[in-house]
Design a protein that fits this description.
Blueprint lengths: L2 H8 L4 E7 L3 H12 L4 E5 L14 E2 L3 H10 L2 H20 L4 E10 L5 H15 L8 E3 L1 H7 L10 E10 L1 H14 L3 E4 L1 E9 L2 E9 L5 E11 L5 H8 L7 E11 L9 E4 L8 E6 L2 E5 L3 E2 L10 H14 L9 E12 L14 E5 L5 E5 L5 H16 L24 H8 L3 H11 L3 H7 L17 H9 L5 H8 L2 H4 L1 H19 L3 H17 L2
Parallel strand pairs: 1-2, 1-10, 2-7, 4-12, 10-18
Antiparallel strand pairs: 3-6, 4-6, 5-6, 8-9, 9-10, 11-14, 11-15, 11-16, 12-13, 13-14, 17-18
Helix pairs in contact: 2-7, 2-10, 3-4, 11-12, 12-13, 13-14, 14-17, 17-18
Length: 536
């Protein structure tokens, strides 16, 4: 179903059971949960799906080693429950989206033998909490084995390492898969539709006034229950309902950098357990490059958070400390920052110490706001939110199904089919792997679009095909060039220069597919340039 058809569905004047504001992980998760229970659902997102926080994570599906440490050291039940729930949800994600998620071994280097019992026992507890959903047993590595796992690690003074397992995923494509699965379950979902007002009937929120940011026009969407799932922007939406509402969020920023191929670890990532300010740092293989993150500092809410020079220096300083290779700013191929919507605590100034647990706030008007949490627990957050919405609105709904419901591309996905796909269609091995791990059981549909020159690579050194642009516009609700470059594929977050080189082809093919006039093409060209420049 194309975007215009979905907008028309929202303009019929029908009263939806649920209107979800926000198309990130939690919003799309809530729309999917509700629609799969048989509720009539509409979702609107002012940007693209995953255009904010949900595409700017560290790409880990994890319980949170740091949260477990805080739970043990401070006897913090909230943090302990968060880790336990996240490890359970990690297992679910690997089952319902096996094409987008995979286990990842991580090595923690140890330079002081006294740290061995502490780190090993902590990670063994991590395994224990995962239970049957564990991905592998943590174990101690000797010096030589630790170096083999991560050859670039600084060898001077290295005593040992601890190997443990977590999950890695493509966050933006996971978010898009949630939106498309919600659509398949009957929800009406639309990107670039902004809520400009909420309205009440008899003192209760009864819907929203929305504006189409692509085609123009304003209309009302009626709903029995309205859910605010806008992440860092939750307080702004709450203010539309009640200008006097006290803020409930404390927002922080996490910066990441991507280094070129020579820094990429072969199979394992590294978890640096102690930085100058007591945070964790991850160095991870990601699409053949090296992803490093993250920082954690208080931030202002903005659509496009920037990476500051002090954050770049912070990450490079710690890399130099742990790498045997010299790392310079010129080695950075891309960078980005994401905002974390943390449930606020007025007595804590350090955002790194705020729990990543979620909270559901219900205003006197009935507006439901879901805030906090983390990517790994999006499904539980969505389930809890829909449960409360059903209660608040007196809605009749079936039980939650999302624990076993395959996401878009997963239903008939067969792991390890890459060689067959490559042979059948004459694809390079890395292209076949990319298609399988991005589209799952839809990979063949993508290949079939890639006839003629659409089967050419978009840019050299990367496995992305020109035909994927057409597929994204036809089947994945991509309506702007940056939607494709940054979220349907991760090129903009991997390599800014490569994304700039690819942009003219993306603009040309999307213009033909979506019927852009010259003015719209120029607008898109300016938007792509602004976004790509802002990422570094």
């Amino acid at each position: 179903m194309q975007r215009q058809e979905l907008l028309e569905k929202m303009k019929t004047g029908e009263t939806f059971d649920l209107l979800v504001i926000g198309g990130g992980a939690t919003g799309c998760g809530a729309a999917l949960d509700a629609a799969s229970r048989g509720l009539r659902v509409a979702l609107v997102e002012k940007g693209d799906f995953a255009s904010g926080t949900s595409s700017r994570s560290t790409k880990l599906v994890h319980g949170g080693v740091r949260y477990l440490e805080a739970a043990v050291l401070h006897l913090d039940g909230v943090q302990f429950n968060l880790v336990r729930d996240a490890l359970h949800e990690r297992g679910i994600l690997l089952r319902i989206a096996p094409h987008l998620c995979h286990p990842l071994p991580l090595v923690t280097p140890i330079y002081r033998l006294a740290e061995v019992p502490y780190l090993l026992s902590g990670l063994k507890l991590y395994d224990l909490l995962a239970g049957a959903a564990g991905l592998g047993a943590s174990r101690l590595l000797g010096h030589d084995e630790a170096v083999r796992s991560f050859p670039m690690i600084r060898k001077e003074g290295l005593r040992a390492g601890v190997l443990y397992f977590d999950g890695q995923f493509d966050d933006a494509r996971m978010n898009v898969a949630l939106a498309l699965t919600a659509l398949a379950e009957g929800a009406a979902v639309a990107n670039y539709v902004e809520v400009v007002g909420l309205y009440r009937e008899q003192g209760r929120v009864a819907g929203a006034t929305v504006r189409d940011r692509i085609g123009g026009g304003t209309w009302d969407i009626r709903a029995r229950v309205v859910v605010n799932a806008t992440g860092p922007f939750a307080d702004q939406v709450r203010a539309l309902d009640d200008p006097a509402a006290e803020p409930i969020l404390s927002v922080s920023s996490g910066a990441h950098i991507v280094l070129n191929r020579r820094f990429a670890p072969p199979e394992a990532g590294i978890m640096i357990p102690r930085t100058d300010d007591g945070r964790l740092l991850f160095v991870l293989p990601w699409h053949g490059r090296c992803l490093v993150g993250t920082t954690d500092a208080p931030a202002q809410v903005t659509d496009h958070p920037a990476v500051g020079p002090e954050e770049i220096e912070y990450l490079l300083r710690h890399l130099r400390r742990y790498f045997s290779l010299e790392v310079e700013p010129t080695d950075i191929a891309a960078s980005w920052a994401g905002l974390r919507p943390l449930v606020g605590d007025p007595d804590r100034s350090d955002t790194a110490k705020l729990a990543r647990d979620h909270a559901i706030n219900i205003a006197s008007s009935g507006l439901i706001t879901i805030s906090g949490g983390k990517w790994t627990t999006y499904r539980k957050m969505a389930q809890d939110t829909v449960d409360r919405a059903i209660q608040e609105g007196g809605l009749a709904a079936a039980p939650c199904r999302t624990e076993t419901l395959p996401l878009h591309g997963a239903a008939e996905f067969v792991p390890g089919e890459e060689p067959s796909l490559a042979q059948r269609y004459g694809l390079a091995a890395e292209v076949a792997t990319h298609l399988q791990q991005s589209y799952g059981d839809r990979a063949v549909q993508v290949v079939e679009i890639c006839a003629g020159n659409l089967g050419d690579r978009l840019v050299s050194d990367y496995p992305y095909l020109k035909g994927e642009i057409v597929y994204a516009a036809r089947h994945e609700l991509a309506v702007r060039a940056v939607d494709f470059l940054a979220r349907r594929i991760p090129l903009a977050l991997l390599d800014r220069k490569a994304a700039q080189a690819a942009a003219p082809v993306v603009l040309e093919l999307m213009a033909g597919e979506l019927g852009w006039d010259l003015a719209r093409q120029e607008e898109e060209r300016e938007e792509v340039q602004a976004r790509l420049v802002g990422m570094l």
